[in-house]
Design brief:
extended, alpha+beta, about 50% helix
């Protein structure tokens, strides 16, 4: 009837009813299927009310905040035990006694036989050891190359980056001229930012760092090209990129700075409370002013002559008790040490360790779990150590190794045919394998057996297992064993002949 009298109204009513049904169906479907707009990108949920929903540029994140992050990281390293433990453990396990190279030139590219390749490798190794194990490599004449590795790693971890120049210096009594000179990262700055120059780093259109700018003690700015006109590297910038286009590095502790600062305050508060609770503390309460001198147990109270209303408290021994009318004693009970302190700190250290890639058992050097659990923690953290070691080799050790080879070839200390004329041959000559300190074993017998079985099953090699077990070179091991076996046979022969003579 309604459709006949008001056809237009009836049509609109049916359309509205259809839309309502469609909306209800969508709402029902939305209840079962959630998307980003309803979860992580929601603009209406209370959980995201105070969230920061803007994307900062990489320069805003790692450039504008660089100075503050570095200052706080240095402060934590110097005064926070957990922060220092994290830095020290990474440095010690990544570098240890030093990451040492073994020359491994590519004989096929160079078209030489194995004996010629071995002879060249031995010559390179001898010259490198003379340079790296002496202080000739250090422009300050203080450290050898492996100690400088440790300094570079420590600086990178604490400050987020490390700058090293590679100048030539000819000095009396020294064989080599290649030197390593570290520069304080705080000096890397420029007068005014431009499109290509910001925070002391100059980029080109390809986002390649072509030069670095440093401020000296005279407030003068100096530009240092990354490479010279001949292609020789002038400067090494050790840092880890977190975002595309990043110019400067951030400290390892950056994501946990706030947590570590709170740990410092909490630890100091608990320590002070424990110290106070170790004293016999008494409080005198009174309902009226009694400015007289009294002695109470181990505590004496005297009136301050400058302010009669103020009482000064001091500890005493064997004092007698005398109270004025209206006074009474109350003994302090701070409830320290706090029994929940260790549990709470362990939980916080788990969060800190997770952010830094260090299991809390390793971070705190507390292996109270089973052998399997402890070994799992060590294996997990060793992945991080190996990753950082490979990164340090690629960004610091290998470039310096190649610069050193450039010098000894240019100065005629060694003859390498085609080194300067052919870039491919130069790459073949500069090839090296780097070995560092091994992980160590919780149960040496089990791990040696496992290594032997992997070799016999074809799952590994003697060279790889030697490196992983004790950081040694299998070739060196074989050569040394040949010498030892020969000497042992000679000794056995002498002993046998002596018995016959006797």
């Amino acid at each position: 009837m309604l459709e006949k009298i008001f056809p237009n109204y009836a049509l609109k009513r049916r359309e509205a009813q259809f839309k309502i049904k469609e909306l209800k169906a969508r709402e029902k479907l939305a209840d079962s299927i959630l998307n980003y707009e309803q979860t992580g990108a929601s603009q209406s949920k209370i959980a995201f009310r105070n969230s920061y929903d803007y994307i900062n540029t990489v320069d805003e994140d790692t450039g504008d905040t660089k100075e503050v992050l570095t200052a706080r990281s240095i402060q934590l390293f110097q005064g926070n035990s957990v922060a220092r433990a994290a830095i020290e453990k990474v440095r010690t396990n990544v570098v240890g006694r030093g990451i040492k190279p073994k020359a491994r030139i590519n004989a096929k590219i160079l078209e030489i036989n194995d004996s010629e390749a071995e002879e060249i490798q031995n010559k390179i190794q001898i010259l490198w050891d003379w340079w790296a194990e002496s202080t000739e490599c250090d422009i300050t004449r203080i450290h050898n190359f492996y100690q400088l590795q440790s300094l570079a790693m420590m600086t990178y971890l604490v400050e987020g980056e490390c700058f090293a120049l590679l100048p030539y210096r000819e000095r009396k009594g020294e064989i080599f001229q290649t030197k390593i000179k570290f520069i304080d990262g705080a000096r890397c700055q420029n007068q005014a930012n431009t499109e290509y120059l910001k925070y002391g780093v100059e980029f080109n259109d390809d986002q390649e760092p072509v030069a670095y700018h440093f401020k000296n003690t005279k407030n003068e700015y100096k530009r240092i090209p990354t490479f010279s006109a001949t292609g020789r590297r002038n400067i090494i910038h050790i840092f880890e990129k977190e975002r595309v286009g990043q110019r400067r590095g951030v400290p390892l502790l950056a994501p946990v700075i706030e947590t570590l600062l709170q740990i410092t305050r909490y630890t100091h508060a608990e320590l002070m409370n424990a110290v106070i609770s170790s004293l016999f503390t008494v409080f005198i309460t009174s309902d009226k002013d009694t400015p007289t001198s009294n002695k109470i147990g181990g505590l004496s109270t005297t009136t301050n002559p400058r302010n009669p209303d103020e009482k000064e408290l001091s500890l005493g021994s064997g004092n007698l008790l005398r109270l004025q009318p209206g006074e009474k004693l109350e003994f302090a009970n701070p409830g320290r040490p706090n029994n929940g302190f260790e549990v709470f700190m362990n939980v916080i250290c788990k969060h800190v360790g997770a952010a830094l890639g260090i299991p809390h058992e390793v971070l705190l050097s507390s292996f109270n779990a089973s052998y399997s659990a402890s070994r799992a923690s060590l294996l997990e953290v060793w992945k991080m150590y190996n990753m950082r070691r490979s990164w340090l080799v690629a960004s610091f050790c290998q470039p310096i190794y190649e610069t050193f080879l450039d010098e000894i070839v240019d100065r005629g200390l060694i003859e390498l045919k085609g080194y300067r004329e052919n870039a491919l041959k130069r790459k073949a000559y500069t090839r090296a394998e780097w070995y560092g300190q091994s992980q160590g074993q919780l149960d040496p017998l089990k791990e040696v057996r496992a290594a032997r079985e992997k070799i016999e099953a074809g799952l590994s090699t003697v060279s790889r297992e030697s490196i992983e077990l004790n950081g040694s070179d299998s070739s060196d091991n074989f050569e040394q064993r040949k010498i030892e076996i020969k000497k042992q046979n000679e000794l056995n022969k002498l002993v046998k002949e002596g018995r016959k003579d006797g």
